[in-house]
Design a protein that fits this description.
Largest sheet of chain B: 6 strands, mixed
Oligomer: heterodimer
Number of helices of chain A: 14
Number of strands of chain A: 2
CATH topology of the domain at 2-97 and 176-256 in chain B: Rossmann fold
CATH class of the domain at 2-97 and 176-256 in chain B: Alpha Beta
Largest interface: A-B, 29 and 44 residues
Distance between the termini of chain A: 25 Å
Strand content of chain A: under 5%
Shape of chain B: globular
Structural class of chain B: alpha/beta
Structural class of chain A: mainly alpha
Strand order of the largest sheet of chain B: 6-7-8-3-9-10
Order of helices and strands of chain A: HHHHHHEEHHHHHHHH
Order of helices and strands of chain B: HEEEHEEHEHHHHEHEHEEHH
Number of domains of chain A: 1
Radius of gyration of chain A: 19 Å
Distance between the termini of chain B: 36 Å
Radius of gyration of chain B: 19 Å
Strand order of the largest sheet of chain A: 1-2
Strand content of chain B: 15-25%
Helix content of chain B: 25-40%
CATH topology of chain A: ABC transporter involved in vitamin B12 uptake, BtuC
CATH architecture of chain A: Orthogonal Bundle
Largest sheet of chain A: 2 strands, antiparallel
Number of helices of chain B: 11
CATH class of chain A: Mainly Alpha
Helix content of chain A: over 70%
Number of strands of chain B: 10
Shape of chain A: globular
Chain lengths: ~325, ~260
């Protein structure tokens, strides 16, 4: 069976709950909770991207666009029409899902490099829309004044509260995806990844299955975007550009795209790298990412999540 | 009498032509597969056997002509639609889901007969869990039938070739087909494995499933087939019982360039 064991999940859940308390107790780590909020937001995107790329075998270089669609839908609806942030969040997910169907239906017929090019172009186009629709999005200057969220009357007004909100949603998305992968729907995805002719001989509608998983990953990215908008209270187009799409790819490659744990691990690592450890590289940061991507693809093809298995194999020989 | 004949034919290929650019892979091929029997398609390498299979199962579209299954035209449908009608297949170059266990491969074969609603699966609703238990029970029965019960939890790519071919047949059976198309089930197998494959094919026939078979191993073909069609350079040169085929001069010429009874 597809191995997703319960014990590590319980351990990680405990760690997630305890982390902010630990961070608050150690002065040098106080700001780590804030970094973990970003890590959680990245996780939501990479969980979706991981089943799209790692399990279904489709590439997307445009997921920053769906992240942006969520953020801007939330931003625009809550500041200009002043609807409830949760309704705006759902509107964002629906918008992202619609766009994913429209983009996915023609482009998921493409394979390999062509699919990469199509999603890359899509990401660039959406970013241009964010920049140029000044009346709606505020253009390159961005839009501010995005309100905080409330949950059951409780204002999510501290980093710690937002941390718990984000990681509760990450846990939900993780469990949903784990269930999915062990179900007929998930097996259909994994079947497509290994052999499309065999999958369709088993009666699996390949085009439809690919679109569904593309929509799912877009919806998760949009959810992450809405949370990001409400956490930052300010958004601008550069957060949703090509570089962010590539950063997402680096996250799942570094963590290991054949397991959901890899997505979580990669997201946390890149969050800490980009917000904490790589500050002194300044504009050379991108070179470091390039180096990471290169090193991982050469030396760790299964990412960090694949290291234990690799070591075990080496010891056995 | 004529209508009676029609209802006994499960698959009918009519005036089929397939050309790839300037190359004609199949030239006006007609084929009738009687319900409940084992029909073999033989012919030298490059005769168009696999192309014929790919057209029947919807992987390729015919250039001209049509394929009828249970009287309805299926040529032009997509693979998964043809699978849903009750035609399953195996592949010459084994196409197992190597990222799955043996059991999961057979579970995936049940895709047509289970609910795979995205939200229900993600939320792991009781209905999905109940369904999964039923599917596992059915998969275990199929594995027992093909003799791979003890390998249920092994990864598919860890099996030797003989078992991989058998597993592919098991996966195809999981779709509950009326017609199963086997593309060289004995290729690359040793004698024991070939005999096991032959026994399995006969057991499938005994279940009432029609078998269409492409194979090179003449021993297996002559022993288990009810009817044989011979292709040579994309053209049908003979069609009949094993005995008729063995002594057909055109067949002997195509295979041996000689005029004695072949394959004895």
């Amino acid at each position: 069976m597809l191995e997703i064991r319960k014990t590590p999940m319980v351990a990680v859940a405990a760690a997630i709950v305890l982390f902010p308390l630990l961070a608050a107790a150690i002065p040098a780590m106080n700001h780590y909770t804030g970094i973990m909020v970003f890590a959680g937001i990245y996780c939501l995107i990479t969980i979706g991207l991981s089943i799209l790329m790692g399990y279904a075998g489709q590439i997307s270089l445009g997921h920053a666009a769906f992240f942006g669609i969520g953020a801007y839908t939330s931003g625009i609806l809550t500041t200009q029409i002043r609807i409830d942030p949760w309704l705006a969040l759902i509107a964002g997910i629906l918008a992202a899902a619609l766009v994913a169907v429209a983009v996915g239906a023609p482009s998921l017929k493409l394979k390999g490099h062509y699919l990469a090019m199509a999603t890359l172009a899509f990401g660039i186009i959406v970013n241009i829309v964010f920049r140029e629709q000044v009346a709606l999005t505020g253009g390159p200057d961005g839009m501010g004044g995005i309100p905080r969220m409330q949950l059951f009357g409780l204002m999510i007004d501290s980093t710690q509260k937002f941390y718990y909100l984000v990681w509760a949603l990450v846990s939900g998305a993780f469990l949903f995806t784990v269930n999915l992968l062990q179900s007929p729907a998930g097996r259909a995805l994994r079947a497509i990844h290994t052999s499309e002719p065999a999958a369709s001989a088993m009666g699996i509608d390949i085009a439809r299955t690919k679109i569904i998983v593309f929509v799912y990953s877009a919806a998760l990215a949009s959810l992450a975007g809405s949370l990001y908008a409400h956490y930052m209270n300010f958004i601008n187009p550069s957060s949703f550009d090509l570089f962010f799409s590539i950063k997402l790819i680096i996250m799942i490659t570094l963590g290991g795209m054949h397991t959901l744990w890899g997505a979580v691990l990669g997201s946390i690592l890149i969050a800490f790298l980009s917000l904490e450890w790589l500050h002194f590289f300044e504009e050379f940061e991108i070179v470091v990412y390039g180096g990471i991507l290169l090193a991982v693809t050469i030396f760790l093809p299964h990412g960090l999540a694949g290291v234990p298995a690799m070591l075990r194999n080496r010891l056995r020989r | 009498m004529a209508t009676r004949m029609e209802t006994n034919t499960i698959l009918e290929v009519e005036a089929l032509i397939k050309s790839f650019g300037g190359v004609t892979a199949l030239m006006d091929v007609n084929l009738k597969v009687p319900k409940g029997g084992i029909k073999a398609v033989i012919g030298p390498n490059g005769a168009g056997k696999t192309t014929l299979f790919n057209i029947i199962t919807g992987t390729l579209a015919p250039t001209e002509g049509q394929v009828k299954f249970n009287g309805g035209i299926i040529s032009g449908l997509k693979s998964h639609q043809i699978a849903a009608l009750g035609i399953s297949r195996t592949f010459q170059t084994v196409e197992l889901f190597d990222n799955m266990t043996v059991l999961e491969n057979v579970l995936t074969g049940q895709h047509l007969h289970c609910s795979s609603i995205f939200m229900a699966c993600g939320l792991s609703l009781p209905m999905i869990r109940r369904q999964e238990r039923g599917m596992i029970a059915k998969a275990e029965k199929i594995l027992a039938f093909i003799g791979l019960g003890h390998k249920a939890d092994a990864m598919a790519d860890s099996l030797p070739l003989g078992e991989r071919k058998i597993l592919e047949i098991g996966r195809a059976l999981a779709t509950d087909p009326q017609l199963i198309c086997l593309d060289e089930p004995a290729a690359g197998l040793n004698e024991t494995e070939t005999e096991a494959a032959a026994r399995l094919i006969q057991a499938i026939k005994a279940k009432g499933i029609t078998v269409l078979l492409v194979e090179h191993d003449m021993h297996i073909i002559m022993n288990i087939s009810d009817e044989i069609m011979v292709l040579n350079y994309g053209e049908k040169i003979a069609d009949g019982t094993p005995t008729e085929i063995q002594c057909n001069p055109k067949v002997i010429e195509a295979y041996l360039g000689d005029s004695e009874c072949a394959f004895i």
